[in-house]
Amino acid sequence: MGQVPELGLAASARAWPDRLHRHVLDHGGARIAGRILTATQALDTAYDVLLIDDVCSFLSPGLVDRLRRDGRQVLGVFDSGDGPDAKRRLLECGIADVIEADASADEFLGQAAALVLSGRSAPLIGPGPRIGRTIGVLGVAPGVGATEIAVGLAWSLSHAVDTVLVDVDLAMPSVAQRLDLPPHPNLLTLIDTVVHGYPHDEVEIACGGLRVVPGMAQPDRQGLPPHEIEMALEAMGARSDVVVADLGAAPHVGHGTLGNFDALVVVATGDPVGVTRLLRHSTRLQQLAETASLLVVANRCPPMRFHRGELEDEIEAALGAVPLIALTHDNQVTRSSWEGEPVAKGRFAREMKRMANLVAAAVRR
Questions:
Q1: DSSP code for 238
Q2: Strand, helix or coil for residue 331
């Protein structure tokens, strides 16, 4: 970071961003990294200080907290003409350094430069750094059994380590239905608390020894920015050993979201169609394997060794020596799903326990 601060200007209907931008173009004193239009852009753009006013639509305590954890400063802008509570939203979001919207451009630059030099910041809001391991469970297509795998893995893990299961499938969330849980609290409740600072009495549901955050369908899947889901998972990771996230089907999941997990379990059906769908994602999966542990589950495989050998050869040829678990059909899964209970016995339960033991051993190290 150089002597001249680099500024991000959050979108505003007020006049101060244009006035400040023109001053910098004419007189220098700072560099403008760009106009910030969304929270995702605020997190992805490189700058030293974000200038954001109290009426900005994407201002939230979670955003301010994340920026500070990234080593960036936030300068809040308010209009004193709005009355004595004009600064209230800025303060509630954790912004202690504020300036009036009608201040001169030199005052803006001076306060931004002081923030950069002093590294001053208000106390952090929200969860501390992530502690627990995060495991994403992804289906290559709808209906391959990703939710069943996520539930089974989380249930087995909960017998060994503190585990929370979070349904982040925005298209077709199914964990609550699978476990016969009420729809509230849910993912939106968690995000409301972690990102927007509106506390709720409960953000999870107890299911035996497993803690569960059900999902909530989003007809417009753009309604939940990726950074809000990341913050929600980070919050649960700060208070548990393992977070298992049911991600849903691959076509509905952004690449950036997948890159945030310690391990990724990819589920396909154990038949030629399922393997074909898996191989369509081979390039993407190989890239993810560079940053996360990758495991492939071939679900509902035929019992014949020849067929399973063919599946293993095709997957290894496309993805390399990726761990593969082949699951044959187990009637216990059907019975348990109708009862709204996790699978507690049978072949499926034994395979989930084997997967869980590998994760639990890594957690204890």
A1: T
A2: helix
- The pTM of the full predicted model, rounded to 2 decimals, is 0.79
- Residue 47 has what DSSP assignment? -
For 334, phi then psi, to 5°, come to: -65, -45
- In 3-state terms, the chain is what percent helix, strand and coil (to 5)? 40, 20, 40
Give me the mean pLDDT over the 271-291 stretch. 83
CB burial string 213-236: b at 16+ within 10 A, e below: bbbbebeeeeebbbbbbbbbbbbb
Written as one letter, the residue type at 315 is I
pLDDT tens digits along 134-155? 999 999 999 999 999 999 999 9
Tell me the three state secondary structure of residue 182: coil
Residue-wise burial string across 120-152, b where 16 or more C-beta atoms lie within 10 A, e elsewhere? ebeeebbbeebebbbbbbbbbbeebbbbbbbbb
pLDDT digits (tens, 9 = 90+) for 12-69: 999 999 999 999 999 999 999 999 998 889 998 999 999 999 999 899 988 998 898 8
Q: What is the mean pLDDT of the chain?
A: 87
Q: Give the distance between the most distant pair of CA atoms in the chain.
A: 77
Backbone phi, then psi, for 43, in 5-degree steps? -80, -30
Q: How far is CA 298 from the centre of its chain?
A: 25
For 207, the 3-state DSSP assignment is strand
| Residue entry with tokens 């939106």 | 188
Start-end of H helices in the chain: 16-27, 39-44, 61-69, 88-92, 105-118, 146-158, 175-178, 187-194, 226-237, 255-258, 272-280, 282-288, 305-319, 331-339, 347-364
Give the span between the Cα atoms of 168 and 265, in whole angstroms: 15
Q: For residues 238 and 131, is the Cβ–Cβ distance under 8 A?
A: yes
CA distance 115 to 110: 9
Asked if 120 and 73 touch (Cβ cutoff 8 Å), the reply is: yes
Distance between CA atoms of residues 39 and 56, nearest Å: 10
How many helices and strands in the chain, by DSSP H and E?
15, 13
pLDDT at 122 > cutoff 50: no
Report pLDDT for 125: 44
Paired sense of beta strands 163-167 and 133-139, if any: unpaired
